[in-house]
């Protein structure tokens, strides 16, 4: 399975790699990366579909809407680190998920 | 709450209501983030981008579903497919005759001075369509057999009609 590593996807991976254990919200990611919702969410959806991200609804106080949160799965974290390394080496535009060492 | 933010909320609520299956959770996620977006216009742009994402996601899900259904139907119901082909052939042939007849009638109405002889009718409604049917049958026989059979059936019926007409005279 492959994920196209566009510059926008790399921005999202970088944002998650800042605090890989922490949950992040959609709007916060949008502010950090500078991506609009129309660009950010398709990337999040694809990553969640490929099990690179886990998603959860935040338990909120009454009267406040719950927020959707995202963070790396262990596989996602490995994939992101491999992608960033490949990117730094000027590597390929695509990284095969199966080739990321476990 | 300003008008752009109200519009944004309405737009995203509608998207949540209309989004199918798995798209709905994502639509709800985008809607709930709206409360945290700073600025009314920024909220509206957030909603517009989000709605576009949901529509595209839903469209791609429907496309996949439709593709799957089409493959299934083609594989399972070959007889139905053939019958449909014959029907299309017959319908096309009848439509051609109908069009030829309509053109003659309309030209008679638009130009009252123009009188069509019975030979014109025979040519336009029978002879020329028969030639076209024959050519279409030959051209389609290998690749679109059922459609060719439908066209041929109408051609034969027309020929039979002419034969009976002359026999009765």
Helix-strand makeup class of chain B: mainly alpha
**CA radius of gyration of chain A:** 14 Å
What's the number of extended β-strand segments of chain B? 0
Number of helical runs of chain A?
4
**What is the chain-wise order of helices and strands of chain B?**
HHHHHH
How many strands appear in the DSSP assignment of chain A? 5
Terminal-residue CA separation of chain A: 15 Å
Percentage of residues in helical conformation of chain B: over 70%
Q: What spatial order of strands do you see in the largest sheet of chain A?
A: 2-4-3
Largest interface: A-B, 17 and 21 residues
The major pleated sheet of chain A works out as: 3 strands, antiparallel
- Oligomeric status: heterodimer
Low-confidence stretches of chain B: none
Mean pLDDT of chain A: 84
Q: From the alpha carbons, calculate the radius of gyration of chain B and give it in angstroms.
A: 29 Å
Residue windows where pLDDT falls under 50 for at least 5 positions of chain A: none
Helix-strand topology string of chain A:
EHEHHEEHE
Please work out how many helical segments of chain B DSSP would assign: 6
The number of domains of chain B? 2
Shape field of chain A: globular
**Per DSSP, what share of the residues of chain B sits in E-state strands of 2 or more residues?**
under 5%
What does this protein look like?
Chain A is an alpha+beta fold. Chain A is 47% helix and 18% strand. In chain A, the strands form 2 sheets. Chain A has a 3-stranded antiparallel sheet with strand order 2-4-3. With 169 residues, chain B is mostly helical. Chain B has 2 domains: 3-67, no CATH class; 71-168. Helices cover 86% and strands 0% of the residues of chain B. Chain B is built from 6 helices and no strands. Chain B has helices at 3-18, 21-33, 40-76, 78-110, 118-140, 145-168. In chain B, helix 1 (3-18) packs antiparallel against helix 2 (21-33) and helix 2 runs antiparallel to helix 3. Chain B is elongated and about 85 Å long. The A-B interface holds A 25-27, 30, 36-39, 41-42, 45, 55, 64-68 and B 25-26, 28-33, 35-37, 45-50, 52-53, 56-57.
